[in-house]
Amino acid sequence: MSKTLLYPPRIPLAQTPTPLQPLIRAAERWTPGKRLWIKRDDMTGSLLTGNKVRKLEFIAAHALDTDVDVLITCGGLQSNHCRATAVVAAQLGLRCHLVLRGTPPSDEGNTLLDRLVGAAITPVAPEDYRKNLRALLEATAEEYRCAGLKPLVIPTGGSDGLGAWGYIAGVEELAADFAQQGLVNPLLVTATGSGGTQAGLIAGSALHDLDVRIVGMAVCDDADYFSRKVSKDIAELQQRFPDLPEFAFSVETIDRYVGEGYGIASEEVYRLIAELGALEGVVLDPVYAAKAFLGLITEVASGSFDDHSDIVFLHTGGVFGVFPHAEKLSSAHNGWS
């Protein structure tokens, strides 16, 4: 299908292609008998590091094409998507307004970076955020309209039918990686939180005829939620871009590694971050990537992935989210060393 696939407008914000690297010592430690790979989307940029910038390439192009003045989006205090949106807005000369869940005691990690690049921030109590997010975003947008500006409200994680193009393009890159490295019957594992990366990967594998099993490791919610959310994003993609060929798909999500909830990491997660860092010089964040990697190695140990000799882990970035967890990570590092 990819020979006739026409992409929507796109701004080249990410540093791509990102490397696909073998994790030799980690494979010996956790996946013996299998080749373990990591797709380094933590290297899509410096301040733009992570998976979110791939989606923003298409969202930002739409914003410029429609004369938008202000990017408005939402997430947790340490949202990687919000930080990336704030940086993109600054790079393109746009304003940015973030509606963030929680009240920060002090600026740190992503929240500090949000402010440094000029984003306006509205902190919202978690319960109010959960109940009234749509109204809060609309009220924020209306304030800018009343000031004579044109806002664009970007959904959580940039996850919708437009943002899905980020990983439709990403799959085209993965197809070249797999061919170059000679991957056989690969399994691709990714953290999934807002569902957009998972939706783009699934749509991309169909549109680019890439035979790969895609497993999302939930960092919030449950498998049923992601089945609905990913299907909704793909339906919106097909509705918004009716010239796309139709394709069948399935959504596979494992929800056993969420732990106590979104943004809450266990001691096991902290130890894993420290151990992988020492083995491979790769740092995972405790909110997304580390939970997904824990799921990967646990499922391998249980035999769930026995049909696959090549396992690819998508590193979705989030390194700045490490710093608010510094105390617990330091304890984990001391215990591992």
TrEMBL record:
**Is Transmembrane helix among the key words of this record?**
no
Which residues are named in the active-site annotation?
Answer: S79 (nucleophile)
Any Pfam family hit: PALP
Cofactor needs: pyridoxal 5'-phosphate
**SUPFAM superfamilies linked:** Tryptophan synthase beta subunit-like PLP-dependent enzymes
- Keywords in alphabetical order, please: Lyase, Pyridoxal phosphate
- Kindly list the positions at which N6-(pyridoxal phosphate)lysine occurs in this protein: K52
Q: Quick check: keyword Zinc in the entry?
A: no
Write the Enzyme Commission number(s) for this entry.
4.4.1.15
- What molecular function terms (GO) are annotated for this protein? D-cysteine desulfhydrase activity
Q: Which residues form the Tryptophan synthase beta chain-like PALP domain?
A: 13-317
Record's family?
Answer: Belongs to the ACC deaminase/D-cysteine desulfhydrase family.
Protein name as annotated: D-cysteine desulfhydrase
